[in-house]
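so i finally got all the pieces together for this one. its two components total, 510 residues if u count the protein bits. some of the lines might not be protein, just check the labels. i wanna see the whole assembly predicted at once instead of chain by chain like last time, that was a mess tbh
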Amino acid sequence: MNTIYILWLRQLKRYVRSKPRMVASLGQPLLFLLGLGFGFGPVFAKAGQGNYIQFLAPGVIAMTILFTSIFSGIELIFDRQFGFLKEMLVAPVPRILLMIGRTLGGATTAMMQGLIVLAISVIAGFRPAVAALPAGLLYMALIAILFTALGTAIASVLSDFQGFQFVMNFLVMPVFFLSGALFPLSNVPSVLGALAAIDPLSYGVDGLRLALTGVTHFGGTLDLAVLSIVAVIFMVVGGRLFNRIQL
Amino acid sequence: MIRVDNLIKTYGEIHAVRDISFHVAQGGIFAFLGPNGAGKTTTIKMLTTLLRPTSGKVEIDGLDPATHQHEVRKRFGIVFQDASLDEELTAFENMDLHGALYGVPKKLRNDRIDMLLKLFELAERRNHPVKQFSGGMKRRLEIARSLLHTPKIIFLDEPTLGLDPQTRNQLWAHVRKLNEEERVTVFLTTHYMEEADRVAHRIAIIDHGQIVAQGTSAELKRQTGAETLEQAFLALTGSSIREEAADATAGMRNMAKMFRGSR
């Protein structure tokens, strides 16, 4: 437990001390929230879909957690390039504990970032159901763990940052845009609906939307089940790949 | 303390280490010298459990690293060729994290951190982020950190690379003191022959993955008829310039993959 705790704490310290990173990672969510929220708001209302900020905020919170989580996982490449990974791998502890500690630390920082965006969303006019916040936190934690583990798995097979842009363009952005974060999944073409159904973030966005606004597409049980199962799968895969790292 | 018999490491058809054998006595300072890409770092990686040998036998304090990985890891400290500190953390936090990973109890950990930071003249920078440290300070911190869990052996992979003469001198003085006062066995690699000559009790020279000579500095000089260790080294390894990949092990691994892929 001490190994997990010390690596969790390390991730938190790195996050809190990196103010520019914290501020910079809020840029994109703010742009989506304010730009899209206020820009498309009237069109969304005219189409009879209600308040767009109310619809969009859970999606933008999920997006923030997605980006921060993936980056936290990918940070393993920094550890490899700047040498700290060697210090971890030569320690007399099972590698799986190292992986769990890093993942939980990365997931915690992603949740903190998500909570900051939630607060900004409230200032922008979003009105969440306060009583449902614990459920919201649960969905945020699941999204964060799932994608930090995925980031760690990816970083375990990448030796440098050259592949990072590929990951962003061909994995992270499609995962985000297909998740229903920006538009309702109820009336989309069947191909888009099918792609959304195999995107784990869709269930995260849907669960978060259910918790914070009471609206759902897949249903809370399915959201929880898919997120939990995929999170476990990614943790196992990430753990195995991390275990195989050679220096 | 360290026994290596017929150790071999191959990557496909590439032979990184070819059948090497040597022995380091407890409390000894052993210098493992060789040109770039000779197999020094690959050997250290095998001795420190980071790489599995293809064949051969390694014993660290009587234990096989392949079967007693964690027990072996508790017995040595290592200073890698490249930096391995978390630069966002302070000197104390880097040490504390190391101590926690090695299971050193909190109270003992704090006492030893204070003692080692004093010993390596870093006590005043205890709470400063490592990113503000000079190269020499980082090196001293890495050595201090490697000693936190009271290892019996310390591996130093080119610890003075890129340091000024004053810092190098001070660093070796610390290493000698540790060896004399705490009987820590030292296994080191360096490209500075005069340092090896001054510090090491025994020396092995590796080239193209094979040990070409081993003995005391005086024995190597006598064997080659050289006046200095550097001349002896050149006589044994030749004077052609060797190139080494930024990460030699990864480079060899990739070359081996290319070999396999081209078939």
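Chain A has one domain: 2-243.
The two ends of chain A are 26 Å apart (CA to CA).
anyway lmk what u think
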